[in-house]
Amino acid sequence: MNKHTSRRGRLTASAAAGVLLAGIALGATACGPQSPTAGAAPQSATLQASAHPSSIPRPTPAASPAAVSPAPPAQPAKPAKPAKPAKPAKPATSGPILPASVPVRLQVPQIGVNTALVPLGQAANGEMDVPGGEPGDPGGWYKYSPTPGQLGPAVILGHVNNLASPEGLFYRLHEMKPGEQFSVTRTDHTVAVFRVDKLALVKKATFPTLAVYGNTNRAEIRLITCGGFDPATGEYTENTVVYGHLVSSHRS
């Protein structure tokens, strides 16, 4: 996992994948104005006198035509009001959520980890940076992921080995079991407590980007290191990923 030696495979997830996926707001299409209704044509009528059945000494004059006013034209229909764009539904959050605060220490007593954390950015090629590979170097928090305790998946990296030993900071990460708890201390003096949901060994060639870095409806965390060492090539072909979620917090 360190760039100084081929025995330390690198994380393959791109920096773009580390950024939360943005939601897409879908708007409703407004109806256009309705066409005015055509007015009825003016009408007139002529009333005629009826003949009396008996004999009459002289013709009865016809009645004068009745004056009929033309019907007024129908008023144009008012344009329909455009529909308001639909607001995207916010997914319901689950469990506790903390405000943003940079992590400074990770403690995983089950595997003997008690380490400071440093922020990690992006390498020149767009890949995620990795922590230092010397013995005693701290783990790293990927600064383009949420801070531990915020909504979404915080990402913390550690080497499986180092330049002087095959046993690095996360050498025993594969031993983590569902239900176990660990903690992250933050700069706001809160300690975020996480519970392990699952552990996965994934191929770097088919890294599950969305499962690891995609949006979640609760505060989650990922602990990641290399795995699957291939003696024939001297490379790590897999990543070990611990998935966890926030269960509580307290003051440090």
Main attributes of the structure:
Sortase, Chain: A, globular, 8-stranded mixed β-barrel, 29% strand, 252 residues, mainly beta
Tell me the layout of helices and strands.
Elements lengths: L14 H4 L84 E6 L4 E8 L18 E4 L9 E6 L23 E6 L3 E14 L5 H5 L5 E12 L4 E17 L1
Parallel strand pairs: 2-3, 4-7
Antiparallel strand pairs: 1-2, 1-5, 3-4, 5-6, 6-8, 7-8
Please provide a written account of the structure.
- With 252 residues, the chain is mainly beta.
- The protein has a domain at 104-251: Sortase, Chain: A.
- It is 4% helix and 29% strand.
- It has two helices and eight strands; from the N terminus they run H-E-E-E-E-E-E-H-E-E.
- The protein has an eight-stranded mixed beta barrel.
- Strand 1 (103-108) and strand 2 (113-120) form a beta hairpin.
In short:
This protein is mainly beta. Helices cover 4% and strands 29% of the residues. The chain is globular and about 65 Å long.
- Give the biggest sheet: 8 strands, mixed, barrel
- Average pLDDT reading: 77
- For this structure, what is the CATH homologous superfamily of the domain at 104-251? Sortase
Number of strands: 8
Q: How many DSSP H or I helices?
A: 2
CATH architecture designation of the domain at 104-251: Beta Barrel
Helix and strand content put the structural class at mainly beta
CATH class placement of the domain at 104-251: Mainly Beta
Radius of gyration from CA coordinates: 38 Å
Sheet with most strands: strand arrangement: 1-2-3-4-7-8-6-5
Instruction: Estimate the global geometry from the Cα principal axes.
Output: globular
Our estimate of the beta-strand percent is 25-35%
- First-last Cα distance: 32 Å
Helix content: under 10%
